[in-house]
Request: fold
Amino acid sequence: MAKQLNIFIDNKPGRIKSVTQVLFENKINIRAMTIQDRKDFGVMKMLVDKPEKAHLALTEGGFACALKDILAIIMDDKPGGLYRLTEVLLKNKINIQDAYGFVIESLKSAVLCLEIEAPQKAQAAIEKQGFQVLQDAQVYQI
Reply:
């Protein structure tokens, strides 16, 4: 299962630079990211090519961070893709805790990254309906 970094940072100038500097110095490539504002602090969520190494480097650098299991699901980049997926999740009573997506234009596909309460149950239900869940190595090579 793929891992996502959740990094808790103060909401002030220079903190994102500090995080990315640690990743740069450790030759870690960011594959996708999002930042959520919580007024005085923020949460950076990242897919990186070496999540365990990134977690260790950031922790040693004084950042509060965690590795979270996610499902990275490939779907067609066309209207209705997300709708079809959410139908499967609802049918199986699976709640989405967090999500973000991006498009791989060369593949004409979208990738949806989901943090879900029961990822193994979700993965089985999703794959049963024909969706592809990327393995961790596939995610880190995107």
